Amino acid sequence: MIRWWIKIYCCIDIFFTSLAAVKKEQAIGIIFSGTGADGTKGVRAIYEAGGIVMVQYPLDADYDSMPMQSISKPHQLANDMLTFVEKYAEQS
Q1: 54 Cβ contact list (under 8 Å, min separation 6)
Q2: Cβ atoms 53, 83 nearer than 8 A
Q3: pTM
Q4: SS (H, E, C) 30-72
Q5: In this predicted model, what pLDDT tens digit does every residue of 24-74 receive, in sequence order?
Q6: 3-state secondary structure of 27
Q7: Are 69 and 44 in contact (CB under 8 A)?
Q8: Which of 50, 67, 49, 69 shows the shortest CA–CA distance to 58?
Q9: Under DSSP, is residue 28 helix (H, G, I), strand (E, B) or coil?
């Protein structure tokens, strides 16, 4: 049986997964302060589709659980941001 609160906590995953499916490499997801692991699956979907994911610095977040769950490789996030900026700077 699926409880109602599980559906509530998964809403950003559903949104990010849909965004990744439709926008692919143009998808951008941002994770801010929050509790639990909501967003983790959606972040992975955006990343795997070639999109960009930004995550609030966990030490600055009121609740660091969502940002921490979304960052599996912090050094990779920095490299991805640099690639994103360089890519769009070239197009300007």
Answers
A1: 28, 29, 30, 31, 77, 81
A2: no
A3: 0.68
A4: EECCECCCCCHHHHHHHHHCCCEEEECCHHHCCCEHHHHHHCC
A5: 999 999 988 887 777 888 888 998 999 988 888 888 888 888 888 887 655
A6: coil
A7: no
A8: 67
A9: strand
